[in-house]
Design a protein that fits this description.
Elements (H helix, E strand, L loop, with lengths): L12 H18 L6 H17 L3 H20 L8 H22 L1 H8 L13 H17 L8 H10 L7 H5 L7
Length: 182
């Protein structure tokens, strides 16, 4: 039986993710109601307590798995009517972006303690949680649905595709990544 990494307050990394970070992130991704300050603070504090006593790599790996699985579910839930795909894509994108921003803030300590340090220790490129999420979106949603999207202007599709190539997506760029021009 594998032992869990446990923080000084008794929480294991998996527990921090499952009980604190994931529910808050899912609520933000659902977009149905705002995430309370208490929920944000609880999640951030749990991450802080865990990272101050353990390596951030475990939470980073969990965020990587979470966003890969979440974006696969978005792609799988797409409507079978291809003409409805642009509207579906845009609605999901509009929910995804604020959720990613919140998760990125909650997991900010991962950036300070892991993401920024790993490349300098010759472990290759480690993406921020935000860029990790957007990379998963591109791979699982955009690439997955692209062959079925034929009602969107090709120049618009090429623009959205090209925007995903940027190393960091700024606020203005995020707003321009919908399939329907805003």
């Amino acid at each position: 039986m594998a032992s869990k990494l446990v923080t000084s307050n008794g929480k294991a990394g998996q527990d921090v993710w499952t009980n604190d970070v994931e529910p808050t992130t899912l609520q933000a991704l659902a977009g149905s109601k705002p995430v309370s300050m208490k929920a944000r603070t609880t999640a951030y504090t749990a991450v802080w307590n865990y990272i101050m006593t353990k390596n951030a790599a475990g939470l980073y790996a969990q965020s990587q798995t979470f966003f890969a699985e979440y974006t696969m579910r978005v792609a799988t839930a797409a409507p079978s009517d291809d003409s409805a795909l642009p509207e579906y894509y845009d609605a999901e994108w509009d929910r995804f972006v604020p959720g990613v921003k919140l998760a990125n803030r909650i997991l900010d300590l991962i950036h300070k303690r892991y993401v920024k340090r790993e490349p300098s220790e010759c472990h290759g490129d480690i993406l921020t949680v935000r860029n990790l999420a957007f990379k998963s979106w591109k791979k699982n949603v955009l690439v997955g649905l692209l062959p079925r999207i034929d009602t969107v202007d090709k120049a618009r599709l090429e623009r959205v595709w090209g925007l995903f190539a940027a190393p960091e997506l700024d606020e203005e760029t995020l707003g321009d990544m919908r399939l329907s021009a805003s």
